[in-house]
Amino acid sequence: xxxxxxxxxxxxxxxxxxxxxxxxxxxxxSDEYNVETYAVFDSLNGLADFKxxxxxxxxxxxxxxxVIIRRGGEPDVDLGVLNKWLTSNYYHDGRExxxxxxxxxxxxxxxxxxxxxxxxxxxxxxxxxxGKPKFVQVDIDRFGQHRRSYYSLNWKKLPFTMxxxxxxxxxxxxARFDDMLKLSAKLAEPLGFIRVDLYAFGQEIKVGELTSWAxxxxxxxxxxxxxxxVGRLFENPEQDVETLFGLP
Length: 248
Hints:
The protein has 248 residues and is of the alpha+beta class. It has two domains: 36-109, no CATH class; 122-244, D-amino Acid Aminotransferase, Chain A, domain 1 (2-Layer Sandwich). Helices cover 24% and strands 25% of the residues. The protein has eight helices and eleven strands. It has helices spanning 10-16, 21-28, 44-49, 79-86, 91-94, 177-188, 225-235, 241-244, and strands at residues 37-41, 56-60, 68-70, 106-109, 122-129, 132-140, 147-152, 161-162, 193-201, 204-211, 221-222. The strands form three sheets. It has a five-stranded antiparallel beta sheet with strand order 7-6-5-9-10. Strands 1-4-2-3 form a four-stranded antiparallel beta sheet. The longest helix is centred in the C-terminal third of the chain and has 12 residues, at 177-188. The radius of gyration is 18 Å and the shape is globular. The relative contact order is 0.16.
C-alpha cells in the first residue's frame, strides 16, 4: 500500500498534515478530540517575533518524530532547528509519498498534562484495517525507559512487540476505551489502512495524529512470525486477532 497510489490519495495527504488533520477530525467527529493549536507558521518571519507559551509542544506539520516539548519556558526555542524543519522534505527519508507534497509548517500546540502535572505516561495507537479497529499498541514511558505492548479489543495482551521491549506487567484498560474505538472507526472508515494515534488521560481523549505506514513499513516484529499473522488482516479484516494468535 505504501508503494501504491494509496500513498498519494489526496485525503491521505491531508490527514498526514498535522495541522489539516484537525479539520478531518472535526468533520468526522468532534473538535473536542483535537489538541488546541496556538499558532502555525510557514516561515521564520513570524517565528522570530512569536511570544512562545511557557508550556507548549512545537513540531513540524509535514514530518514525523521531530518535536520540542517546552515546560516552564525551557528549553529556549532554537530558530535554527525550526528553519531546518521548514527547509526539509520528510519524503526523502523513507519515501512515504503522502509526505512528498506537504507544505512545510511549524505548529505550536497545547502541552498535554495529566492531573499530576506530568506528561502522559502512556499513549495508544489503534491499528485499523479497512475501517475496523483490530488491535492497540500501547507505548509506555516514551521519554524514559520506552516499552511497548499490544492488546486486543477485549484488552487481552497479544504475544508480540515491535522495536521496543514488551512491558512485562499488565496495563490497565483506559477508562474510555470504547469511545476510543468508536472514534478510531469513524476516522479510519474512508482510509483503508490507518493507525489512529491517541492520548487518553482521565476523561480526555485527544488525537495525536493519523499514521499511514507504521514504522515506515520496515520495523520488525518480535517474534518474526507475528508479522505473517498480523498481515492476514489485510486479506480479511473480519478475522479475530485473538484467534489468529491462538489466545484462549
